[in-house]
Amino acid sequence: MPSVELVNGLAERLAQQQTLVLDGAMATELEQRGCDLNDPLWSARVLIEQPELIRAVHLDYLKAGADIITSASYQATFQGFARRGYDHAQSVALMQRSITLALEARDEFWADPANRVGRQRPLVAASVGPYGAMLADGSEYRGHYGLTIEQLMDFHRERLAIFLNAGADLLACETLPCPEEAIALGRLLAEEFPQAAAWISFSCRDAHHVSQGERLDKCLAQLAGFAQIVAVGVNCSAPEFIDSLLDDARAASAKPLLVYPNSGETYDPTRKCWHGSAGDDSFARMAATWHQHGARLIGGCCRTTPADIRAVTALLRPH
Prior knowledge:
Binding site for Zn(2+): 236, 301-302
InterPro entries: BHMT-like, HCY_dom, HCY_dom_sf, Hcy_S-methyltransferase
Domain Hcy-binding: 8-316
Strand content: 5-15%
Strand order of the largest sheet: 1-10-7-6-5-4-3-2
Keywords: Metal-binding, Methyltransferase, Transferase, Zinc
Protein name: S-methylmethionine:homocysteine methyltransferase
Helix content: 40-55%
Number of strands: 10
Shape: globular
Distance between the termini: 34 Å
């Protein structure tokens, strides 16, 4: 399990680098490489069928400049795997595999001395998708689960232990639609995983509110007392909302801020397809604006690519 020093380690990295670059989309990138993800398991399906493709995507993001890569475990849950006929032990093995693939890609990348020039050893963050992702019905963009904080803690508990024991450096608790789930994860860290570090990232429906409807600044204020939450922010949201959301976040939280929005297209969770197109501005140009609004960790979510991350790296960390 990671040392508690990791909490300070991320701060030290941010002290040395003004901005840390996150990776981009996993699932939509896998689709671009021929994977059929029209499945409740989404990218977790590829853990079963074509794990080598996940490793290849991780490696491409590292080559593009990512300082932190995120495992393909967003939709990896006991309930989801059980619906496909996998028992508890098999589900554990698949969750472990998601971390192992990221670690293998990181090790392969770092083994080449040329890749170390001007770089620190990248971190592996375990993607912890919300309860709504397990439902596979778009609930991560609505919230209103009808569950207590204690029930949400029960849902996440064993999965966190598996990811940490498999060697993840930190937890990426992402696309959370509501403050209750963030508090549940913060309490789990404090009460049961005192050596772990995590970031908390909300999905947002507009320029000021998380998907369930609460103001983002109010949600972030409730996380101030959780020291193991090392960064907070927004992901899987429309790029045009990010400037205002960052302004709200900066006023409400002293923690480092992170953003990794979608490309600008709109997702239909019922039909499970994308509409529209990315904005006229390049993703990297938008990222520069997010940096000006206080983001310290910047990457992409759905429909972003290694090319986007390479452009973000070139703009924010020129050599």
